[in-house]
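Re-run requested by the PI after the first attempt was lost when the workstation crashed. Everything re-entered from the original request form. Ligand of interest: thymidine-5'-diphosphate.
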Amino acid sequence: MAKILVTGGAGFIGSNFIHYFHQNHPEDIIYNLDALTYAGNLENLKDLENSDRYKFFHGDITDVALVNDLFERGEFETVVHFAAESHVDRSILDPSTFIKTNVLGTQVLLNAALKTGVKRFHHISTDEVFGAIEQGEDRKFNENTNYAPNSPYAASKAGSDHLVRAYGKTYNLEYTISNCSNNFGPYMFPEKLIPLAITNLLEGKKVPIYGKGDQSRDWLYVEDHARAIEAILEKGKSGETYCVGGMTEEITNLEVVKLICGLLGKNPEQNIEFVTDRLGHDFKYVVDWSKIKNELGFEPKYSFNEWLEKTVEWYKNNQSWWQNVKNGSYQEYYKQQYGPKK
Ligand code: NAD
Ligand code: TYD
């Protein structure tokens, strides 16, 4: 029986990963360390509350004493590190918590992992560390692409990637890193484009599109991401990085939102609102996932259109989940980001 520590497991991708792993690895025990920031929600894991193979610990990864104590008692074989501040727009409003959690928090975990002999530290990162593919440029990000982060979020993730690699080189910590593209699916916090669009439309509000909406992302269904992490834990080589991407090259934000309007029977002309562009807005991300395919036999299997439809259905069927999330402090953020009238 292996013990696996997941950090940030009450967030969007972490909770989907825990569901997937709990179901597919009945031999393992999952520990979840999460500070329950605005993005963490134990509702995401309600069905596992009574499982004897899942345990939740409330705590901050920047808390040295708490983390050291948990690692010493837990004797974890594997760590899968999701915990982070994850939203670009919030990092533009205030970068400081991004540096604290994403950089310093990662270093606290790395120290504890090293001290307690963790056999694999898997670090979840993003393709945003590579910067942007510019308009008219024909290339994809891969494991050899230079780091060129543009937002404070991306810079903080780049810092954490470098620390993980340095702990591997300097202290021989066994690690792997994955840099993945934009995820979508259930339990995604409605500050990010896809759930914001779905929930705004369900509430009868317009969808704010930055600039002209001609930017594009390489959308990855969240369960494909969980499968990719599983493949890396099982077959990945220590000291290696793997890029993980989706199946949607070149679909613009405007096209994505129009698809969602179509799925909800809304007229895009009346339900989309073009707003001031994001500062430093990255134009395009496209990931070349041939390394993980060739070396570990992983490729995404969930097509964007089909799983976008299922995701829209999930938000339609789980209105109380996102209505609770959109109450309270979310309102303050929304006003600050989009202005009081929207
Ligand atoms: P999220 O914002 O939905 O969840 C983050 C989780 O981390 C929350 O449960 C939060 O409570 C927890 N957390 C935050 N600060 C913490 C701290 N100091 N101590 C302990 N827990 C803390 O994020 P997500 O979208 O699920 O992203 C998870 C990871 O995947 C992040 O590392 C992110 O950079 C990376 N990633 C996300 C995407 C995406 O599309 N969402 C794409 C690529 C990479
Ligand atoms: P987002 O979901 O925030 O992910 P990321 O910035 O990490 O890629 O944004 C996805 C794209 O959608 C990005 O190009 C910014 C754009 N966007 C909007 O046009 N309007 C919005 O209200 C939001 C949140 C994002």
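Saved to the shared folder this time. The domain at 193-216+249-283+305-335 is CATH 3.90.25.10 (UDP-galactose 4-epimerase; domain 1).
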